[in-house]
Amino acid sequence: MSNGANGFDDSEVSGPHSGVSKAPQGLLGRTIDQRYRVEALLGEGGMGLVYRVTHTRLNKPLAIKVLRRENTKDPEVLARFRREAESASGIGNQHIVDIHDFGELEDGSTYFVMECLEGLDLIDALDVAQRMPEGRAIHIAIQLCRALGAAHDAGIVHRDLKPENVFLIRRNDTEDFVKVLDFGIAKVANGPKRLTRDGEVLGTPHYMSPEQCEGDGVDHRTDVYALGVLLYEMLTGHVPHDADTMMGILTKQMYEDPIPPKVRVPQISEPLEQLIMRCLEKKPEQRYQTMHDIEADLQRIHTGQQPVGPDTVTLKPTRPPAPARRAVSPIYLGGLAMALLALVGTLAADAYTHRGTDAEAASQPGDFAAPLGRASAPPAERQAGPEPVADQPASASGDSEPETEGPRAKPPRRHSRHRPKPSPQRDQAILDPWK
User: What does the pLDDT look like over 139-157, one tens digit per residue?
Assistant: First the structure.
């Protein structure tokens, strides 16, 4: 069983797969609330611990998530933990992890009980497959649309959709049956109060929408963007935006256009590429507006029909809008003008210096200067005087032209410049994929 099976973010987990666990073992072997026998520690994350338990009366395997004792003193963390249980249990969709119970331990720690899943999360599936066939990716995405569509209909936005929170199990004869986990930072539209401060950034950078990166208010369309990222990654094996730092990723999410999927994998169908790029629009109003619309178009693509597209007026589907240009700073313009003036002044001073040097050299007597346009003859030639020139027949104009002594020097041969012809193998789709 993967750590992700019980709603944990594997980026925060230090469980059985990462060596010796530092989790407290106090609950192992105990029975919680006289019915949940704790059998094994599955993993631990930033908020709490996950154990495998057995319901003693039903003999049913379950999982229990216990909030860390130190986190129970933080009202906001405690509220998020309870919100996760309330959000997931209140949706009632087969593709969202089931929450069975909720309570407190004797020491005041909060816990909730959920179904125990056998399978692997999407990040492990991608590690095995590198990239998925189009049919499998569509199959998974359709189930995600159903889960998130039900959550949105209930007024709940997930806000942290990523491969670690998508679990794949086998149910009956269905492979890759999807379960969505971890509603810990979910936003409830009609909740009694806000659980986050204005401007606070919550989520995982690679899967966050531009408005989420800016810390602005988000709605259900931030999950649409995250679904587009998941589809992109399943089909290409890459996330749309990556960088060495978190700020680099956030900046690219806000301002850079992603490389179209067909540039990375040409076998991807054009309708599916259009759907993905529409989900990844920078502005929420230019994306698909509901998960139900995305599911309907995925079904059409899967059956070979033409997708309808979102019910909104947007730009071309295969090219996201360019980021808005910011006004140029007056300080920058002033500095550029001063640099240009300094360059012009330097060139003018250099030209004046050279002109003064030439004039001074021309005013010197003797062999130090020669008339402009004609080189001075060597001293030996001037002393010997001009040599006699043989009689030449007069030209038609009556003027005679002296012939220089010795063979005439051949002018240098000018080689023609050949431009290299463009290779016929050049892939124009790579240079400009939108032509």
Answer: 999 999 999 999 999 888 9
